[in-house]
Design goal:
Number of strands: 11
Low-confidence stretches: 1-55
Number of helices: 7
Strand content: 15-25%
CATH architecture: 3-Layer(aba) Sandwich
Distance between the termini: 16 Å
Shape: globular
CATH topology: Rossmann fold
Structural class: alpha/beta
Mean pLDDT: 84
CATH class: Alpha Beta
Number of domains: 1
Length: 308
């Protein structure tokens, strides 16, 4: 068994799923030639970055990113509006003390998660010196009456596009240290984050996957054509990225516990933390532990060391 896995607090069988201003954008100059940013194509004036292999398994998203607008506030957490193809995406950005640039964590919420769901965690991360960005996916409002996405593959495709665009938009925020961006994903947002991490290997420092919904790979249906590969484990096996998987000893529903085992074995540079007494929501004390333990692991990564 993987030595990193042995270091976990205990072995778990987990089942999990759900977690549950407006200012004019500053115009950017649209180029006539799409710019390649990792495996994502953006029509912006941003500099291109290398494309990881294999490129062909992922879609080449096209979108126009404008400079985000951050509202003034006396709170360390400030409203921010991102713009993708002119469409606003509401978010929050939490700054630590100091001038920056800061190591930054971008949080992707669980299915239909509300904006602000992770603000307490964001403020706790900020005390450790991290800037934290939260945002609400454009398809992230639950329908009434509630129902799960019929075409989950299309749904995930759209969310991964949003996350990639948010990553690109951080280049307009001087407080963000572009060489130290981490992605945090909870539940379904963990699956979004896993995809984006594989697409942006050269842009992302590491992943924090909190009860990621790997089970959904087998349920991803597409209305017209398959836009995302659902067979990502072979690609994960080639990844050099640091990956932290966090789960708890109290599950909810939906997740096959063996998915975490498989992910641990598959990711070459992975580490697992199992929090005693934590359920799928990771609220309260459990939420504090998520932040504190992940900060400890990030410190190891920053020092190019493996966690104990």
């Amino acid at each position: 068994m993987n030595s990193r896995y042995k270091s976990a607090v205990s072995i778990l069988l987990v089942t999990s799923l759900l977690a549950a201003c407006n200012a004019e954008p500053q115009k950017t100059e649209e180029t006539t030639v799409p710019v390649q940013t990792s495996a994502v194509v953006t029509e912006t004036d941003l500099e291109s970055t290398p494309v990881p292999e294999p490129e062909s398994v992922f879609p080449k998203y096209k979108y126009l990113v404008s400079a985000p607008v951050i509202q003034e506030s006396t709170d360390i957490t400030k409203p921010v509006t991102f713009y993708i193809d002119g469409t606003p995406i509401k978010g929050k950005i939490t700054f630590p003390e100091g001038e920056g640039p800061f190591k930054t964590i971008i949080i992707s919420s669980g299915l239909y998660g509300s904006l602000g769901r992770y603000t307490k965690k964001a403020k706790r991360y900020s005390k450790a010196g991290y800037c934290v960005i939260e945002f609400k996916f454009r398809n992230g409002t639950a329908p009434k009456p509630y129902k799960d996405p019929k075409y989950l593959g299309d749904f995930i495709y759209e969310q991964v596009k949003d996350l990639n665009a948010i990553i690109d938009a951080t280049k307009y925020i001087p407080q963000v240290d572009q060489s130290n961006i981490y992605l945090y994903g909870h539940s379904m947002g963990g699956l979004d984050t896993a995809y984006a991490g594989l697409m942006r290997e050269n842009d992302i420092k590491g992943l924090i996957l909190v009860d990621p919904s790997f089970y959904a790979l087998k349920r991803m249906k597409f209305e017209k054509e398959k836009t995302l590969t659902t067979d990502i484990f072979p690609i994960m096996a080639k990844s050099k990225m640091n990956v932290l998987i966090i789960t708890g000893t109290k599950g909810s529903f939906g997740e096959d516990p063996h998915n975490f085992d498989d992910a641990m074995v598959t990711y070459p540079n992975s580490y697992m933390v199992i929090l005693d007494g934590a359920d799928h929501h990771f609220d309260g004390v459990s939420g504090d532990k998520v932040v504190d333990r992940s900060v400890e692991i990030l410190h190891y990564w920053d020092a190019n060391e493996k966690p104990d």
